[in-house]
Structure formats: structure tokens, C-alpha cells
Amino acid sequence: MVENIKKFPNLRDKSIFLGVVMSKSTNRADRKYAIIEVPVTAVGSRFIVLPSKEDTHDIMLLEDAIKFNLPDIFNFMGYDEFQAHIFKFTRDAELDIDNSDTTTIIQKLEKGLKNRKKGKPIRLAYDENIDPGFLEYLLTRLGLSKTDNIMPGGSIHNFRHFMEFPSQVFSNRAKRKQPFTHPLLLDERVGDVLLKRDVLLNFPYHSFTPVIDMIREAAFDPDVVSIKIACYRVASQSKIINALVNAVRNGKDVTVMMELKARFDEEANLNWQQVLTDIGAKVLTGIQDMKVHAKICVIKKRIKNKIIHYGFVSTGNVNEKTAKLYGDHCLLTSNRFIMADVNRIFNFLQKPDTGLHFLEKCRTLIPSPTFIRTELNKLIDYEITAARKGHTAEIILKMNSMADAKLIEKLTEAAKAGVTIKLIVRGIFCMQSESKKFKHPIKAISIIDEYLEHARVWVFHNRGNHKVYISSADWMIRNIEHRVEATCPIKSPQLKQELIDILNIQLKDNTKARILNNELNNEYVKKKDNEVIRSQEESYNYLVNKSY
């Protein structure tokens, strides 16, 4: 009951609420307000499956069950008329980290996380049929005005709950294809395979298990000296962390870069940081004013008197849960030049106050911040020069978001010079992809399908000797200038072709691909000759049938 309490309750911003208005049929001016949090988490589901007739499925929303029972819930109040409508709100989730004091980053984050739960409401979404008097009251108590982000809508909110819609109502539900183990990793230890050749894992089609196995093997291998790994987001019950804990217990020198400022994973990462610290691992907790977003690992092994390094560079997180849902690429390698640069990045992470000289010494990986922009400009300029001389020039780019104005200007220059440009951008897209000044039309699409397209892959024609990169960085100012990222060239001709083949499959998608034109009206790519190409299915088929 809220209208008479002095301090408004601290409502959780990820929940949905029923705003209840009670009145009497004999005196409608006598009204009371109440708020009920719909207890989705406590009950376990927002959907109630009801007894149904044969060949039908009757399902009720939890909030509707609550509405139906309002007269019983409030029977002691003496009211006989009830109405209730859904609303939800969003708090300001920015963490206010004060760098002027001397407290540690962990102490600052702990304080920031507590304050986030009390952050100022900045957005209110509600059923457009809500009682006007209750809405006015709610805006006043939340400190909002009608000029703020106030959004009337339908009667159902938090559609993310529909991901857990009762499965029994679907009789023809397609089964999701299961990840399969990469053929090269079926019969040998992962570390032993990598000493002979590079392996490219393409998630979610390939299983993530070999990544876990690589850390597990290293944890028990008597020849392994140390493990260094960067963790941005990990699974809630992380097998990677468990393997690292075992490695420490077995006497390995374990260094973990645990990015504590990973948005909305701050609390979980703080907990993992404590687990790893308690067991004796060396935990790096980030750099002031900069996030560590690189997905890298290096394992040091001593065989007789020879030192060998192997590990990975990836576009995605070391998270076995999201690896089943996110499209990413992970290069497992013992290439000494790549691993040397991974070590240089870790040297920078351990001694960031000494400047960027460790990153500057990278000769194979292209690190962020600072250095990636220069290299990208060189790569694009090479294609521009080739186009102006009449040679074949082409750039294929895949990423989550493209918003960096300077790189977009450079791409626009390339298109005007005659470079063929093909883009696959799932999220933010700030480029004008259509212009009469372009010598060849830019092909720009976004693919939204069963799996989240999360990978970053860049291909430059390079006069036929393709340069192919995988990266943790999108083309956004934050990734280019304000984060530690790793962009890795693919050296193996076979793996280069594998990535190019997958990109070409995606560029042919005419089922889940949408056109990124200047208006961004997201129209689907039109089918030609009744040929149906769904790139995620075709990518799976390509990989499952591939021989090595």
C-alpha cells in the first residue's frame, strides 16, 4: 500500500509491477493505491499452463492470475472495485567510479553496485490503459515528469520472459542442431594438436569443450609452467574458472585478467576475483579509465630445455554458456609470433603505468588502443591505391557495430575510389551505404537469426594475397581508443579460406538478412529464383561436411 507511506519502496528495475487501484461502487472517490511485484523469479515462470481440452493449450499469464484474485488479496480492505495495469521502469545503470580517492577499484565497484540498485529512474514503460490518477501519482513518487522517457504501450512487458514460453504447446518445434567437436580435436590432446597446426573453432557450430579441455590439460600437465588468460564475461558456473583453480592447486603460475567493469557482470566478476585470489592466482583487475576487452590466453610449457607457448585469440568470451548461442571465432595456435604478442599484452596489463611500450612492440597482433586505427587506415589505403590503378580491390567486414566516424569516412573514400565493399553489421550502423559517388554499390546487411552474430572478421583483398583478421573490437571509438583489444591475423591459407567461405555464405543470406540502406528501414533481402539461403544453417552444413 503506497499512497500514504513517506518513503517510496525501492522497486527493482528488472521486474514488472501491477499498479492496483481500489475503489468502492458506492463512493468512487474513495480510492487506494497498491503495487504488486509480479513474482516471476520466485514462482519460476510467468506462464501458467491450465487444464485444456484435447488439441488445445490454454495458458495464463501470472499477472492475469493475480488480477483475477485481487478481491481475495485485498478482501480485508472493504473495496469492491479493482483495476490493475502493468508498468516497469529502468534505473540509471552507470557506475559512478570516483578516481580521485585512494580506495581500490574493488572497493569503488562494490560501492557503485550498491548505489546502482538505488539509481535514479530514467525510463517508465506502462500499459496505455493505466488509471490516469495512478500514473500521475507514480510519476511524482519516482521523480519523473511527462518530458522524461515515459512510454505508453501494450498490456504485456518484459517480452524476454517469452524465451521460456511453455514448450509443450509446440508440436512441430525444430530441434536446435548440437555443437560438434572439431574433427582435428577428436583423438588427441588439444595442446598436442596445436604444436602441429592451428585450429579455428567456429561457435556455436563447433563445441566449446576443447577450450575448456585445453585449460584442464594444462592444469595437470607437469610440463606446463604458467597460464595467462583474459576473462571479460564467464559462465555462472564456469568450467574455465574451475580449471584455473585446479591449475593453481597443481602448482602452476596462473594470471587472470578479470575485467571488473564488464557491464552488468561487475558483481559476478567481483565474486570470481575473490575465488581466484583466495586460491592463490594472480588476478589483474583492470586499468583506470579503460576496459580490457581482449579475448586472449597463453600457456607456457617447458619440454626438456625448450620453452613452447600455445593458447588462443578469440572474438568472443570464455563462456561455455554463450558459446552455444553466440557466433564467434576462436583461433587455437602455437604460432610463436602471435603468442609473443599475447605475452606483450599481458606485460602491459601487469604494468599499465609504464605506458604503451609493450603494445608498441607487437609485431603480429594489432592491439588497441591507439595502434589499430593506424593499421586499419593503412589496410584501407592499400585497397584504395589498388583500385585507382585498376586492380581488383575489395574489403569485407563483419562486426557487431560500426560507429567510428573517422573509419567510416575512410571506407566512404574507398567506395568512391572503386573498392568493392561488403558489410555484415548486426547492431549499430552509422554509415551512409548508398551514394551515386560510389563506383560500386556497397552491399550492407544485418543478420538476426537463432544465434547472435557476435564475431568480428575483416578481409582485405591485398592484390589476391588476402589479409584476414579476427578481432575482439568493433569499429567504435570505445573499442578503438579506450579499450585493450586484440586483432589477430590468420596465417594459415586454409583457415583464411574457411573464414572467407563463411562470410560469403552470410553475404548470400536471403532468409534472415536485412538490407542496411540509408533509411535503415531494415527490409529483408529479396529471394531470387526461389533459392532459399539461411546462412546459419548453411554455415553449419559447410562446417560439418568439411574435411581436413
UniProtKB/TrEMBL annotation:
Post-translational events: An intermediate of this reaction is the autophosphorylated ppk in which a phosphate is covalently linked to a histidine residue through a N-P bond.
Keywords: Kinase, Phosphoprotein, Transferase
GO terms of molecular function: polyphosphate kinase activity
Every Polyphosphate kinase C-terminal domain range: 193-352, 365-536
Top class in the EC scheme: transferase
EC id: 2.7.4.1
InterPro entries: PP_kinase (IPR003414), PP_kinase_C_1 (IPR041108), PP_kinase_middle (IPR024953), PP_kinase_middle_dom_sf (IPR036830), PPK_C_dom2 (IPR025200)
Reactions catalysed, as given in the entry: [phosphate](n) + ATP = [phosphate](n+1) + ADP
Segments crossing the lipid bilayer: none
Family from the record: Belongs to the polyphosphate kinase 1 (PPK1) family.
Name this protein carries in UniProt: Polyphosphate kinase
